[in-house]
């Protein structure tokens, strides 16, 4: 199994003399992708003290373009993050490069420690660490990841229109990806070796829809001028393919949540953090957003989850502030439970 990584080394820091360690943040956000930055933007605009700790390991960082994002269709994921950095910082948010290696509760909320030894403390914590794709161990797949080898029909199906599409299954259930891709091309080949025994009924349905089913083992990816041109099979033949849709295993980067004891729920993708509709986990004061809470979240969904969590967090702050003011003047003011603000945009 090939884990798709692109290690980022955090800059050296003196853990005893870091400006981020010298204050109590209202909210600490672990992860600076679409979800984390969306949460940070809402909260900084609400005049909260926000710290984003970003290991720069966004799941889509290998792709040149992201699609299906309103107003940003075809935009670079890296440019989206750069835009988010600028916007969050323009409202006073602080973003630091670093991978959080330890997260724990404290008397006032939470404390985290980065890989460079820097400590930071905050009243609330949003985990936006995303996920990591684990590809099959087929030579050439990882080298083409995000270009000629992709995974999401909604993100990359349209760009494959009329091309020779290969669908590399790792499970029988993954055949639904082939069915999703069929409208884009009359030339779709489904490779089933990695899926194990493949039901005859599934094969017949795929073929009825005009797709070829290939049971031979894929040996390696064939390229021409650094672009996918085929998949070489175990017997030496080459299936002409222009783009490969693969079924990676998605693993959540939930180490901070594990350390805090957050509950998980079994999903078709494996165990995933348990959250409510706002992203709130089983640990009081901790939210999970983006792929850290929803393995199926596309970029727009991840952004929305970050904003939703931010609204919930800020609502808690406002409720606490109203309660404190009421107590200060001796008023027994009933504070309604936090709820999202109704906004027309």
Description:
The protein has 345 residues and is an alpha/beta fold. It has 2 domains: 2-132 and 250-328, FAD/NAD(P)-binding domain, CATH 3.50.50.60; 142-247, FAD/NAD(P)-binding domain. The protein is 25% helix and 27% strand. The protein has 8 helices and 20 strands. The chain has helices at 34-45, 77-90, 141-144, 153-156, 175-181, 200-208, 255-260, 299-328, and strands at 2-3, 24-30, 50-54, 94-97, 100-105, 110-114, 119-127, 131-135, 149-150, 165-168, 188-191, 212-214, 218-224, 227-233, 238-240, 243-246, 249-252, 264-267, 270-273, 286-288. The strands form 5 sheets. Strands 2, 3, 4, 5, 6, 7 and 20 form a 7-stranded mixed beta sheet that branches. The protein has a 5-stranded parallel beta sheet with strand order 9-16-10-11-12. α1 runs parallel beside α8 (299-328). The relative contact order is 0.16. Residues 26-306 form the FAD/NAD(P)-binding domain. It catalyses: [thioredoxin]-dithiol + NADP(+) = [thioredoxin]-disulfide + NADPH + H(+). It comes from Naumannella halotolerans. This is Thioredoxin reductase. It holds the Pfam family Pyr_redox_2.
